[in-house]
Amino acid sequence: MLTRRLPLKLLAPTLIVSLLLAGTCIFVALYLNRLHTDVSIDFVENLQSSQAAENLAQTAIELRDLLRDKQRDPATFPQQVRYYEHSLDRRLEASENLANLDREKKLVADIRSGLDEFHRQWQARSDGGPATGTGSDEALADLLDKRVVRPCQDLLSYNKEQVGQSGRDNIVIVNRLTATLIVVGFGAPLVGLLMGYAMARKVYQSITQLSVRIRDAAGRLRKELPAVVLEDPGDLPDLHRQMQGVLEEIESVVDRLQQREHEVLRAEQLAAVGQVAAGVAHELRNPLTSVKMLVQTGMEGDRPPGLPSDDLAIIEREVRRMETCIQTFLDFARPPVSERRVTDLNAVIHRALTLLDGRLRRQKVTVALDLPPQPVELLIDAEQIHQVVLNLLLNALDVLPHGGVIKVEVSGPTQEQHSAIVRVQDSGPGLAPAIKDTLFEPFVTTKETGLGLGLSICKRLIEAHAGTIHAANVPEGGAVVSFTLPA
Question: What's the pTM value of the predicted model, to 2 decimals?
Answer without folding.
Answer: 0.40
